[in-house]
Specification:
The complex is a heterodimer of chains A (about 240) and B (about 80).
Chain A (H helix, E strand, L loop, with lengths): L8 H23 L10 H7 L7 H9 L1 H22 L13 H23 L8 H18 L7 H26 L23 H29 L1
Helix pairs in contact in A: 3-4, 4-8, 5-6, 6-8, 7-8
Chain B lengths: L1 H20 L4 H21 L3 H26 L4
Helix pairs in contact in B: 1-2, 2-3
Classes of the chains: A mainly alpha (about 240), B mainly alpha (about 80).
């Protein structure tokens, strides 16, 4: 926190740059305060009503840009694959220091709540903020908590592989069914009545796809975290 | 009122980011980077983007900092 007595020129130039940035952003903000902040999505909200999903962002991410979401999942899969190739080792974890009693008890208490919150964020992604990506990462952080506190804990490799394969295959299958039924990749072939908007069973195929995305992201992030922890304990 | 919150958050984010790049130990920088992520969460939430705020809280401030910390421990003390 404390700046040294002789401030280097790079720090000074960085400070000047950030001051310029602050002034620019303030200038923009003061011109558009505060009624014009949230007008960008107005037209999108009108289109959104045709799909019967309450959360407009979910409609954009899963439906209008569903193919991009498939690409994002592929990117995450490749990242997980690369980390697995670089860091995988068969040896068991042997962390030298035993984690203490407080951490073990607290993690046993917190783990179900974190899991429940992750699943909630995943299932209610089409009604409230959140969705598959966020819920999956929350579940992976719960797994990370158990990995830190219990040194013999391990998610079995076969379970992760099965979940990930199932999720990836069913995403593409649902997309192809939409292509066959409605002549559009990821077409919404299930009933999506606007009168049901706001219910849990609304939006047709969109919540199902987001749950699948959540399963895939959760298993991939758990894989990444587990590989990093295993490798770290071997060094 | 909302303008005051935004102004304060901007100043806090830039101060924390400046502190993060001037730290000597990398672990301190990563913790301050987490603080930048938390400031971003407040900012996104005031701009009425709760989805982005949730994503930033989970990924930007949460698990990416933890992955940075694990990578730092993996690299060892020599860096």
């Amino acid at each position: 926190m404390s700046l040294k007595r002789d401030i280097p020129t790079s720090a000074l130039s960085g400070f000047a740059l950030s001051a310029i940035l602050v002034l620019t952003i303030l200038n923009i903000l003061l011109q558009h305060l505060p009624s014009k902040i949230s007008t960008a999505g107005e037209e999108l909200l009108k289109v959104n009503a045709t799909e019967g999903v309450a959360n407009a962002v979910t409609t954009v991410v899963v439906y209008f840009r569903g193919f991009d979401t498939l690409g994002e999942i592929a990117v995450l899969f490749i990242a997980s694959l690369g980390i697995g190739l670089m860091l995988h080792s068969n040896s068991k974890c042997d962390i030298k220091a035993e984690s203490n009693f407080m951490l073990q008890t607290a993690s046993k208490l917190l783990f179900p709540i974190i899991m429940l919150f992750g699943i909630y964020v995943m299932i209610y992604g089409h009604l409230s903020p959140g969705g598959g990506f966020q819920g999956g990462v929350i579940i992976a952080s719960g797994v990370l908590l158990l990995l830190i506190s219990h040194k013999e804990f391990e998610v079995p490799h076969s379970v992760i592989v099965a979940l990930e394969t199932f999720a990836g295959v069913s995403y593409v299958l649902i997309g192809l069914i939409g292509l066959v039924v409605l002549d559009k990749f990821l077409g919404n072939f299930l009933p999506n009545d606007i009168s049901n908007m706001g219910l849990l069973m609304s939006g047709g195929v969109i919540p199902i796809i987001y749950i699948i995305v959540g399963i895939k992201v959760g298993s991939e992030m758990s894989m990444i975290v587990q590989n990093l922890i295993r490798r770290e304990s071997n060094v | 009122m909302i303008g005051l919150i935004i102004l304060f958050t901007f100043i806090a984010i830039i101060t924390i980011a400046f502190a993060a790049i001037t730290q000597k130990k990398l672990a301190d920088s990563i913790i301050l980077f987490m603080g930048v992520g938390l400031g971003n969460v407040v900012l996104f939430f005031t701009f009425k983007a709760p989805d982005v705020a949730l994503t930033e809280a989970v990924i930007g401030a949460g698990i990416s900092s933890l992955i940075f910390l694990m990578a730092l421990k993996h690299l060892g003390e020599k860096s």
